[in-house]
Amino acid sequence: MSLFVHRIGPACTIQDQGRVGYLDQGLSRSGAADLRALHEGAVLLGQSPQLAALEMAGMGGELEATQPLGIALTGAPMQASIDGAPVVWNASHQMEAGQRLVIGAVTRGTYGYLHVSGGVASKPFLGSRSAHLTAKIGRAVQAGDTLPANSGPPIRGMRLTPDDRFSGGVLRVIASFQTPLFDQETLDRFAQTEFRRGSRANRMGMQLDSEGEGFAAQGQLNILSEVITPGDIQMTGTGNPFILLPECQTTGGYPRIATVLPCDLPRAAQTPAGGKIRFEFVSMDEAAILQSAYKAELVRLAARVEPLVRDPHDIPDLLSYQLIGGMISATD
Amino acid sequence: MDIESLRLNPRRACALRHDNVWSPLEDARVSREMTANTADTFPRISTVGYDGLLVSFADAMAEPSNRAALAFRNAVDTATWDGVIETSASLASAYLRFDPDKLPRAEIQDKVQHLLAQQNWLDAPLPTGRRLWRVPTVYGGELAPQLDEAAAAAGLDPVEAIRRLSDTKVRVLTIGFAPGQPYLGPLGPEFNIPRLKELTPMVPEGALVLAISQFVLFSGPTPTGWRHVGQTAFRCFRPDGPQSFALKPGDEMQFLPISRDELEAIRANNLDGTGGATCEEIAG
Prior knowledge:
heterodimer; A: 7-stranded mixed beta barrel; 22 strands; B: alpha+beta; Gyrase A, domain 2; Cyclophilin; 2 domains; 5 helices
């Protein structure tokens, strides 16, 4: 089973939960920018969240099913249709052999996901199928590629009402080991500032813009290079913040002011250019409560899927249906 | 996003003290005290995001603190605590990432503190199983055009600079910035030369570059502010090979001078990416 790629946006890669255990070799985890979307796709298709999917930054493509195949669409909503008929986002759909799925531009957020029944079955490298373009592992999917899929059973269309994580908002952060390099005035100002996601963004990190002066650390350029983790908010030499994402470097010399909690990283990564972001410091105890709540929510996702009822507007041959068959008299 | 702010400053090498290694993070408000670490008190445990701990042995690069970081990280790996996801060692610190659901924060802090107290890690020997790599290297000329200016910055003529650089066995201090890419040192204090203000737009894979008494051996083509003094055919990252990563932190390397013709001969037969290097176990 597979999908043949007729057209594809410039930044589409195969992603799963990422590659753990190679930090000491200078290789960051990679993995989906919006890990929550992998869980949503999994419950829509009734399969494991460890399976790989196609991550589409900003723009999808045109893909043809070579055999009958179940798919699900999650993450940032994009315009989508199968053989010209619009299909619902955050839902699963059965495709027949020869049908074409067209996924257009994102309407909110940044990263949309195409899941296939059984998972994308590309060749794993060091235990993961995630491309890591910065490390030259894998490559962007191109027209002419075939996305192999493991065989999965025929699926029944399901839908899921997602949270709204596609337009920025408040990101909860915790202090990290370099937070004390910033003075209290700078930290307070940081927590009070409204940022906008800048135009410089990819899977390594995203720049944030704000009015007024930057957020420089004391001795900014002379600190020892130390470990970096996804979610770290790093200051450049001019005090411009970047939120670091799955393809970040593993060590770095620019100081990090705080770290976005893992539960808020999908929202961070999905913030579109120009989207507003604020940061709220929480204690480690509060962070633990938020993380537990997030994990519980992922577990509950499976109970929240519901059958996809077709909207009459989406049925192309509606007039041929016997909608009033069986009715004898309107006055009985 | 740049590792290059590391520097060598032996005068700041720390004294090891066991008091005051941990300050609990109880304050819920944003504050610098949240990761309160008494300045210049080492070893120091601090938090890295939600699920990490950093054990620092100094706030500047020095041989003993790098050795302590490698030895301590190795001890954590050997202990195989349930709930530790991964570890790494950087120039002067060890990092532990853990699953707080399996290994509560308070518990891993206790374990780390207990392990730290077992010995003076600045006196610890390096982990066993290290290897010495001897890598054929073309110094200077067209393939490594900044050798002469690096020598001048070190106050040496090029011949003497090559002699000293190729005589020195350097340690893999840490691997980072790019997959498999080692930071190597220390070189003699005469090579504590600053990085260039203007980046060299691109140096090739296998380039040996120099600044701040360290080498970096590039694992891919990259722009850099370090001076390109040597060229090898050694591939640090071999995604298609049986071993994707050639080096381990703690390994030693020596860069032996060869001619450009010799390097071209090596390149002509370099499918495995070893670049003519030899590798031997270091005893002990």
